[in-house]
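Notes from hallway chat w/ T.B., transcribed later so I don't forget. T.B. wanted the structure written out for a chain they're using in a teaching module, and asked if we could keep both sequence and structure tokens in one place. Agreed to drop them here.
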Amino acid sequence: MDPASPNPIKFEAPVILDRGRHRISRRDIDPDCLKVLYRLNGHGFVAYLVGGAVRDLLLGRKPADFDVGTNAHPNQIKKLFRNAFLIGRRFRLAHVKFQDGKTIEVSTFRKKPDEEELAAEREEEASRAREAELAAEAGESAREAAVDEAGRDASIGAEGLIEPAEHDDSRPSAPTEGAPRRRGRPPLKPIAYGTPREDAFRRDLTINALIYDIATYSVIDYVGGLEDLEAGRVRIIGDPDTSYTEAPVRIWRVLRHASRLGFAIEERTAGAILRHRDRLAACAGSRLFEELNKDIKSGSARAFFQSARLHGILSRVLGEVGDLYEASDDRSEKLASLLGVLDASINSGGSPPPEVMYGLLLWPWAEPLLADIHGDKPKVLYDAFRGARAAATIPKTLVLETVHTLVIVDHMLQALIDGKMRWALKERPHYPEASRITSLLVEGSFGGCEDPFSAIYERRFGTRPRSRPRRRKRRPGMPGPPSTPSAPSTPAA
């Protein structure tokens, strides 16, 4: 927290940095994003690079995503890019797709929503959350479930960008261009599009509302984001109490950006977290899982979870698992240590599978439980997690895979004590993940070989004994093995 942080600043005129006063270069912008910006500009539309990419470029970091803001409406964007797919129902975005699987998100400038639009946004998010949960159960990604019926079979040109073509107007226009029909309820008024300034004030954090103008190569700041960036400060735009009430998930985003960037949280922004953190439990479970998933594989999971514990967020999201981590310094330190190694692996180019990442997240909670279970460990551990009342909806398949992985880890750790290993476990699907987790728990690293657990076991107990082939049990009525004929007896002399 920054006790010396200023009061919220209201800008009537933007701060503009021309190309000689900032470090952003077109060489650092994704070439496909530049194609989108130039095409929109070339057809008479305003097109800006917006969001976190501008923040990261100003900090000298490599952005993970590049987003574009424009005054072109969704259907106009669709007409310019045949490889653009509109997603969403009322609040439509364009995803412009390229050959290598890359997606550039293009959104139309909007005003800050009024109460009716906020209610519609919540309704749409709840609907998306229900679809995402169903898609997760079916093994599909939420993103694929959200893409509309426009189709995925457009042939992408050599440069990955389709030339403008005639748009098929036989399909009904998107609901954003008019009032969508809602069964049993009056239609909503059309979406109020806005200016770049209004769009900036609609965003959550000042450092995420900066704009890069491709036409003039200048950075535009309507909300004081440049000052906060210089000071290393995360600040909500407007009143934090109002902002968290409208969208409680912004609490999560504040902690995420502070932990990833190493920034302080502005005093009013931090104080309001304590007043509104209980609202997180009312968010859609699939949305909370989506946010959790982003942070556990971000390369800064340790810093995020430490900040979440400090602000009392873990118990609101992970239920009794989070309660334990907030109440026990020992379990919390164990978690921090494991996540630190996970971060190091990800930051060095590794990509641990989900069972490993969530196994590390849950191990400090599961370890004492497994020590007390003497029956069906997978079932008891699975039931214990489901009974923990976590607000984040972790898909059932992922929970089951993680539980089976941790049960094998528990057996491996015991085998390293008594030397009694059930090597038949090597045939189990989650043995490789369990082997890596065990190596981390015992030696502090994921190991440098395919099966680090076996290497550790052999160093302690020598070459592991080769398992004898199992004797087949004879069922009643089955003939026994053929008897060897005895040699004829020699008659007595």
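Follow-up for T.B.: The longest helix spans residues 115-137. Might be a good example for the class.
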